[in-house]
């Protein structure tokens, strides 16, 4: 594998075929994801079956209730702007953080690339934590945040809320990340009332998503992009998209599958 690291996060991996990934390469990729947050694999020729098999190397697959499954591949879902009269909306978030043990990894493979726009943006949540004012870091120590689901119709028994530490020690890297999601899904910070929660979440979210803490990925045919939900936020930029933007997405439990919920402080 040829690895090129980027700033403020991310890495590009070349000279690897994900359809025939060597067993010894999986732990190295787990370490790279934990260190860099996002890994871009360029020039891949994966169909959905091979993409699913690749994801299973990183744990049990997770499907989000309410998403549109890929025909014939129920563990994957479709992300598409085709047939929409208005552009989709996306804000920086963590996938399925309302689960008690959220999926460690999300990956997208390209199906159709627009001729213009459609980048995906990622934030470095290690850096977000490390660049906090010391007094604010001290204030956050030991606090938890209740994450809730929004915009999805759930069935009885589906998870809808979970409590996670605001300062999360990553189970692979050992580094501390600021762990929050889009403000609409941040219900309550321990010890604070609703207004205090809203104000602090807005402050932390704005800090995390500052332009100098964001990496933009411009998609190319054959790209597979995978990220570690424990140390990045992500969003799709749907502004100014020209042409079809179609991705197939999968999520895997990763390190949570080994009995670690991945959220220990």
TrEMBL record:
<dbReference type="InterPro" id="IPR042098">
    <property type="entry name" value="TauD-like_sf"/>
</dbReference>
<dbReference type="Pfam" id="PF02668">
    <property type="entry name" value="TauD"/>
</dbReference>
<comment type="similarity">
    <text>Belongs to the TfdA dioxygenase family.</text>
</comment>
<keyword id="KW-0560">Oxidoreductase</keyword>
<keyword id="KW-0408">Iron</keyword>
<dbReference type="InterPro" id="IPR003819">
    <property type="entry name" value="TauD/TfdA-like"/>
</dbReference>
<feature type="domain" description="TauD/TfdA-like">
    <location>
        <begin position="8"/>
        <end position="250"/>
    </location>
</feature>
<dbReference type="InterPro" id="IPR051323">
    <property type="entry name" value="AtsK-like"/>
</dbReference>
<keyword id="KW-0223">Dioxygenase</keyword>
<dbReference type="GO" id="GO:0005737">
    <property type="term" value="C:cytoplasm"/>
</dbReference>
<dbReference type="GO" id="GO:0046872">
    <property type="term" value="F:metal ion binding"/>
</dbReference>
<protein>
    <submittedName>
        <fullName>Taurine dioxygenase</fullName>
    </submittedName>
</protein>
<dbReference type="GO" id="GO:0000908">
    <property type="term" value="F:taurine dioxygenase activity"/>
</dbReference>
<dbReference type="GO" id="GO:0006790">
    <property type="term" value="P:sulfur compound metabolic process"/>
</dbReference>
<keyword id="KW-0479">Metal-binding</keyword>
């Amino acid at each position: 594998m040829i690895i090129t690291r980027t700033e403020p996060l991310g890495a590009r991996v070349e000279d690897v075929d994900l359809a025939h990934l060597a067993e010894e390469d999986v732990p190295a990729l787990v370490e790279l994801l934990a260190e860099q947050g996002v890994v871009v694999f360029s020039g891949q020729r994966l169909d959905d079956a091979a993409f699913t098999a690749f994801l299973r190397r990183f744990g049990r697959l997770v499907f989000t209730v309410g998403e549109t499954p890929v025909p014939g591949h129920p563990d994957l879902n479709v992300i598409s702007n085709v047939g929409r009269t208005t552009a989709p909306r996306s804000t920086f978030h963590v996938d399925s953080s309302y689960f008690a043990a959220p999926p460690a990894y999300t990956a997208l493979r390209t199906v159709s690339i627009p001729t213009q726009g459609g980048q995906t943006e990622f934030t470095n949540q290690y850096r977000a934590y490390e660049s906090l004012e010391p007094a604010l870091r001290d204030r956050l120590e030991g606090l938890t945040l209740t994450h809730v689901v929004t915009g999805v119709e759930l069935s009885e028994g589906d998870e809808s809320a979970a409590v996670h530490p605001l300062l999360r020690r990553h189970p692979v890297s050992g580094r501390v990340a600021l762990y929050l999601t889009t403000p609409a899904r941040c219900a309550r910070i321990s010890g604070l009332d609703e207004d205090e929660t809203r104000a602090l979440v807005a402050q932390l979210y704005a800090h995390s998503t500052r332009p100098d803490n964001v990496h933009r990925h411009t998609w190319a045919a054959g790209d597979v992009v995978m990220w570690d939900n424990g140390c990045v936020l992500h969003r799709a930029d749907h502004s100014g998209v020209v042409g079809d933007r179609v991705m197939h997405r999968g999520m895997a439990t990763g390190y949570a599958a080994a009995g670690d919920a991945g959220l220990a402080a």
